[in-house]
Specification:
The complex is a heterodimer of chains A (about 280) and B (about 190). Chain A is an all-alpha fold and about 280 residues long. Chain A has helices at about 5-10, 15-30, 30-80, 90-95, 105-130, 135-145, 150-155, 160-170, 175-185, 190-205, 205-220, 225-240, 245-255, 260-270. The chains are: A mainly alpha (about 280), B mainly alpha (about 190). At the A-B interface, helix 1, helix 3, helix 9 and helix 11 of A face helix 2, helix 3, helix 5, helix 6 and helix 7 of B.
């Protein structure tokens, strides 16, 4: 059995008897093997988490569909269609109302055409911005500004941090995410680092990781990090075209008095309502 | 919606045969079937908002599926609805626990006390999981798929081989290990240590 298969069998509890005794003895004396088993557990945990997130995303889609159906049902119950007024008009009554051809046809046409044309023009003016509002991608691009680099300007921090922020400023977000995450292993309460990690994930296309990072900041950090994290969470949803979630997040921002991003949230929400 | 027990049996059968598409359809049927009653019950009993109830319901479904795929929920000793509502109650208690302090074990509904409710804790893990997600994103789609089907869904290699059109179970197994080795190499080559 290859080493990887052996480790897998051990971690899954499928080794037994002599094989198990032998493997456990080897584990005791071999630090490299112990590290590989520990690493295997971490990798499998990560695969599981990726699966859970993917499934959670599916569940979210079902919820969204169910919510839309609820809203449509409520709307149709609130405003039932009007009854047709013509269902019982008899043929005789209809024939009585038919105007004599040619008599006032031209004037009638004019009386109908002018107000109709005016209504069509007014409708077009109202409808046009609704028909061609900016897309979600455009709105994301218009509103996204990376969280500012506060390290370089303050001349702050040791080399590892400076190296990480250099990647960030170069927009090498994948490398920035790796570097900042490494620093976080020893500085897990530094919420400014978490902000850079979240932005790096967002710009690297790692949506779930970005959301998780912003959620962590929102749950644990003081206001000066919590508020931007809420804003970036709304932008994350916008980037991935989760319109409902983005709107919900912006509403949460608006509900908080003196939130630093309230004005921005209000402007964006107004535009999202047109989508 | 079909009767709960029948749905449950069908889910077990779909999981056993590794039919991801059918599994997803059945889970969706359960989700939409119990949703109205669950949401109104949770809001009424615990005075919470519709939004919060919806969040709890979603987490409940993820935990419910986790326990099916992990084999912890393989037989119904009461109604399916009882399990789902029981998990939902636990999720609500857990989310409130941060304010109130520890939830005594006996507050966890009886029917779900043997289940794996660790999803909420795993949600909070940060550093290592974030790194692994980064490494997974660098694998091919095919590799991610086979690893997900085996390690997350717990499908058998036979089912995976059938569904992904491998020549045989052994070929599928070999492919799985190749992908795992690639993932391990990405982790080892990275400047960051797990």
């Amino acid at each position: 059995m290859e080493e990887m298969e052996l480790i897998e069998a051990y971690v899954e509890g499928k080794l037994a008897g002599e094989s198990l005794i032998s493997f456990e003895a080897q584990l005791q004396s071999d630090a490299v093997l112990r590290n590989e088993v520990a690493q295997f557990r971490v990798l499998i945990s990560g695969i599981n988490l990726a699966g859970e997130r993917k499934f959670s995303q599916k569940v979210r889609e079902w919820e969204k569909a169910a919510t839309l159906l609820d809203q449509a049902t409520q709307q149709s119950q609130a405003s039932p269609l009007p009854q047709s007024a013509e269902t019982t008009t008899s043929a005789a009554a209809k024939s009585d109302q038919t105007p004599e051809p040619g008599r006032t046809a031209s004037l009638t046409w004019l009386y109908a055409a002018v107000p109709t044309a005016v209504m069509v023009i007014l409708l077009a003016i109202w409808v046009y911005p609704h028909l061609f509002p900016p897309s979600m991608e455009e709105l994301y691009t218009q509103n996204f500004v990376p969280y500012p680099d506060l390290y370089t300007s303050m001349g702050d921090g040791p080399d590892a941090r400076q190296a990480a922020i250099a990647f960030y400023n170069e927009q090498n977000y994948e490398q920035a995410a790796e570097s900042f995450t490494h620093i976080l292993q020893t500085q897990s309460k530094d919420y400014q680092l978490y902000m850079y990690v979240g932005i790096s994930y967002l710009e690297s296309g790692l949506k779930a990781e970005a959301l998780q990072t912003f959620d962590h900041i929102i749950a644990n950090a003081p206001n000066n990090y919590r508020e931007p994290a809420q804003w970036y969470k709304a932008l994350t949803y916008l980037k991935y075209k989760q319109l409902g979630e983005s709107r919900d997040m912006l509403q949460i921002i608006l509900a908080q008095e003196s939130h630093a991003y309230q004005a921005r949230a209000q402007r964006l929400l107004k535009k999202l309502r047109k989508l | 919606m079909k009767e709960g027990r029948m749905l449950f049996e069908q889910i077990l059968s779909a999981h056993h045969s590794g039919d991801e598409g059918r599994l997803e359809k059945l889970m969706e049927e359960i989700y939409t079937g119990y949703r109205p009653e669950f949401l109104s019950w949770l809001q009424r009993e615990f005075q919470i908002s519709a939004y919060y109830a919806s969040e709890i319901y979603q987490k409940t479904m993820v935990i419910f599926y986790s326990n099916i795929k992990n084999g912890k929920l393989h037989t119904l000793t009461s109604k399916l609805k009882t399990y789902i509502f029981g998990i939902g109650k636990h999720v609500l208690f857990e989310l409130r626990r941060e304010d109130k302090g520890s939830t005594p074990y006996d507050e966890i509904p009886l029917e779900v006390q043997g289940l794996d409710l660790g999803y909420l804790e795993r949600e909070k893990q940060q550093h290592q999981d974030s790194l692994v997600q980064l490494f997974l994103s660098k694998l091919s789609e095919k590799c991610r798929k086979i690893l997900e089907l085996y390690y997350f869904h717990n499908f058998s290699m036979e089912a995976i081989a059938n569904n992904l059109n491998y020549q045989s179970e052994d070929v599928a197994k070999k492919s799985k290990y190749e992908c795992l080795k690639r993932l391990r190499k990405l982790a080892n080559d990275s400047s960051v240590r797990l």
